[in-house]
Amino acid sequence: MDTMRDRFAPVVSRLLDEDPRVAVVLAEIGKDGFAEAVRRHPDRVVNVGIREQLLVGAAAGLALTGMRPVVHTFASFLVERPFEQVKLDLGHQDAGAVLVSAAASYDWPAGGYTHMAPGDVALLDTLDGWTVHVPGHPDEAETLLRHAVAAGDDKVYVRLSVQANAGGRPVDGESFLPVRQGRSGVVVAVGPLLDAVLDATEGMDLTVLYATTVRPFDGAALRRATGTAGTDVVLVEPYLAGTSAGAVNEALSDVPHRVLGLGVGRRELRRYGRVEEHAAAHGLDARSLRERIGNFLGQGR
């Protein structure tokens, strides 16, 4: 199976052909995928070099002229390093762009912590008006990329990962998708962690909601699910643990409820290893998830 990032350049290259507003802004990373697009659209594929602050600033400038910029590099260089530009050049100026990241939380362990960004979604949560897509399969990534580019002049973040579920699901860029129905609690599985959650909760009387668009948070879907499954909620997110706990609390503010936030821990793992080993170390493999979810629900009885 190809990866989400394998889909990125071909999809956006087609969007360059289809829509004269679309522009691509790169900072060296990913430029080879746009070699043909540069030949066809030399004025709309911009490589600023290894200058991530300029990457975002140039995108904002394009947006202010009426373009729809698609901006790409590793998550740590796209959200964390140029955060001031994301905050001011895009947010303060109300300029829209589509930020598309790669490497996610720990997709490239050999790159070390400089190339990991488990706090990216939490950091964007400090800003207003961002839509955040977290696809769990390359097919979903393609759909959500198209949604993002077509979203007027909105500010959109698309978080790509080498981790993926075995199959894609019909995503609409807005809603949580009910995958399993139960009566003893609700698990919200985000993006590429759905398969692990389904394995972990096999045989458990739980509702599982699949989230690929996490901002805005689909509080209405969560409220519907808790109406039949109870108000114990487990979040399983492929980034910083508890990132969406506040959104759950807001959605259920008028009813007693409990929330368990599972995700990437704050402790830095100072070893390379494999992606699967990092997932297990953070308790995001199916075995660990089953134990942690089971313990949480058992404490509520």
TrEMBL record:
Domain of life: Bacteria
Name the UniProt record assigns to this protein: Transketolase
GO MF terms held by the record: magnesium ion binding
Ranges of residues in domain Transketolase-like pyrimidine-binding: 2-168
Source species of the chain: Streptomyces cyaneogriseus subsp. noncyanogenus
Pfam family, one: Transket_pyr
Signal sequence region: none
SUPFAM superfamilies listed in its UniProt record: Thiamin diphosphate-binding fold (THDP-binding) (SSF52518), TK C-terminal domain-like (SSF52922)
